[in-house]
TrEMBL record:
The keyword Protein biosynthesis applies. Gene3D superfamilies: Transcription elongation factor, GreA/GreB, C-terminal domain, Transcription elongation factor, GreA/GreB, N-terminal domain. Pfam families: GreA_GreB, GreA_GreB_N. This is Transcription elongation factor GreB. One of its GO terms (molecular function) is DNA binding. Belongs to the GreA/GreB family. GreB subfamily. InterPro entries: GreA/GreB_C_sf, TF_GreA/GreB_CS, Tscrpt_elong_fac_GreA/B, Tscrpt_elong_fac_GreA/B_C, Tscrpt_elong_fac_GreA/B_fam, Tscrpt_elong_fac_GreA/B_N, Tscrpt_elong_fac_GreA/B_N_sf, Tscrpt_elong_fac_GreB. NCBIfam families: greB, PRK01885.1. Residues 93-165 form the Transcription elongation factor GreA/GreB C-terminal domain. One of its GO terms (biological process) is regulation of DNA-templated transcription elongation. Necessary for efficient RNA polymerase transcription elongation past template-encoded arresting sites. The arresting sites in DNA have the property of trapping a certain fraction of elongating RNA polymerases that pass through, resulting in locked ternary complexes. Cleavage of the nascent transcript by cleavage factors such as GreA or GreB allows the resumption of elongation from the new 3'terminus. GreB releases sequences of up to 9 nucleotides in length. Keywords: DNA-binding, Elongation factor, Protein biosynthesis, Transcription, Transcription regulation. HAMAP family: GreA_GreB, GreB.
Amino acid sequence: MSRWRPPAEKSTALITASGHARLKAELDELWRVRRPEVVKALAAAAAEGDRSENAEYTYRKKQLGEIDRRVRYLTKRLESLRVVDTTPTDPLAVFFGAWVELENVDNGDTSRYRIVGPDETDAGLGWISIDSPLARALLKKRLDDEFSLELPGGQFTFAVIGVEYEPL
């Protein structure tokens, strides 16, 4: 009996030029460095004899499978991504790749986010996916616009106090 799961929502196939370069570098590292190392270690573990009780062999097989799975994913994903390497004609409006500074109208707190593709999100850096509710609410907003958004912590009102794009 199999378990049925509804299909995951498709993620947007956009990526910044720097994000694309990072994914290509990861793929290159996995294929040219990590995979050959693991294959060599796997061969050494296999040469030790009985594979049924060989923890090193089992670990290396699993590691090789994980690397191959990531290589397949990156190869397919890189083919389907569209690199956005242009800045919009209106630099005061929020579009993909923008750094946006927001002020919480209720308490005056400010925060800064960059709208990026789903493959390059990083909460620590303030990089949010274009598919996130906040990014969707921000798209096409302009400097000094206010908007309300329902988040897990409740209803919040934000003001856009800064919009900038990285130079190409």
